[in-house]
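Box 3.1. Reading complex inputs
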Amino acid sequence: MSATWDLSSLFHGPDDARLDAEIEAANRAAATFLETYRGRVGALDAAALAAAITSYEDLDEAARRPGFYAYLLFSADTQDDAARRLVDRTREAALGVANAVAFFEIELKAIADDAFARLVADDALAERRHWLGLVRRRRPYTLSEPEERVVNRKNLTGRGALVQLFDELSGSLRFRVDDRDLTGEEALALLYEPDRELRERAFTTFLDGYATHGIVWTAVLNGLMQDHRLECELRHVPDPVLPTHLDNEVRPETVDAMMAETERHYHLAQRYFRLKATMLGLPQLKNTDLYAPIAEPPARMGLDQARMLVLDAFYGFDAGFGALAQDFFDQRWIDADVRPGKRLGAFCASMSPRTNPWVLLSYTGTSRDVATLAHELGHGVHDRLASGRRPLDHLPPLTLAETASVFGEMLLTRALLDREPRRDVRRALLCAKIEDTIATVFRQNVLTRFEMAAHARRASGPVTTGELGELWWSENAKLYGGAVQMIPAYRWGWSYIPHFVHSRFYCYAYVFGELLVLTLYRRYQEEGPAFVPAYLELLRAGGSEAPDVLLGRLGFAIDDARFWDRGFAVLTDLLGELEAT
Ligand SMILES: [Zn+2]
């Protein structure tokens, strides 16, 4: 079977006249909004403010629609000039609207605390309390409007230039492995090859290539860390991680407890590494063996069979969950075919609760692709379940964003294991799931610890290349213990991680998301179908409350270390199952 999406419910093509009409309408609406509210937000009563927020929300949605369509067109065919031109045109239009209405949130933040408290106590704003809280939480760290504008402008040539240097230099690097010049992505893909020497040769060449430009990576990271430190000082932000916690809607104590608990379970990763060494017939793993295949890859699976498998697993969990996923095929909201020019990777793009999301992937039939299909459809189901929310409350923060996607993958793994009699295939399935969890929970914890340590060190002056390598090595050594030997070039392992440059402290959200799903899955294992309604309720909430509030409704206290323990229990079981297979 083939699956291409049908975008005609949005627009009829890059030349659809409705595109211009909608861009025009959004511009006019933004101008009217500006005229009506600029300089008056602080004087509105609760009912008038509620109306203003609704206009703001509608305006935002209308302004994003043409650009959303352009992005989908472009992703499906990056060589299409008309799509590319539309991306540029819609981006400019959306930026114009965003600039015109930026005053609204600034004025909301400027309202005095007591006046604001009276406003939000009013029932007229009941539905908006969460969103207003998000805006107001940044009040203590916000500068004046002209200062904010200066910071934004200077960031283009400051932070922005460093990020661009990182991207351009790392994108330009080629790595010579066995007489072939490889891109970074191609070189790293060799870590999944069965030939042990080849894996080590490839990774060493890759890291040595990065080491050649050590001065640049060190300068980029130092520049970004110092920039962030100075901006935190200007804004009176007490801790460099705090802005990320605000985005993620979690308290620092929650993250601390989660990370400490993760470290307490590093031994589980080590247990797996020792087991994998035995399976590969090695006395000890090197870190270039972590992703080595333990069996022949299984035969490729057609898309129709993958679709049936995933839908069966979802229907087995809950009929509604399965039906929502099936819609993506029936309504043609999914583009899964492999085509030249199609964007790499996979996504589920959400527009608004009033419009369906769209799933894109390039399905080639590997087991990784089947898992990706389950993952993205999980996102899709989450989006649809939250379709009763207001647009500003629709999408959850990063910490809750993977709640259905990773759960969907878990359902698929279980369904596959339950029907698979062959020992080597079962082992490969279990290894894939465990390795995925180790990479998402433990490795991301190591990355975050390294980043925190580097930022702390930067406070007392520039951090040298040698110190960065030392910090990286020691955080990794904690995870690997005596179970994995790191290759010498791995001292440079920090230098190619884009998250440190693009999205500071992003990685702990991966830990949170994956552990949360394992914990929820544990509850499902314990309670069976009785757990389903509570889980669906969590998804229906979308981004309408902070994670601790939503999970509290399920009886979870996320500041309690025992909460995270349940997630590790699932991993312990998987390890036991693998040992017994
Ligand atoms: Zn995802």
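In summary: Residues 375, 379, 402, 405 surround zinc ion (CB under 6 Å).
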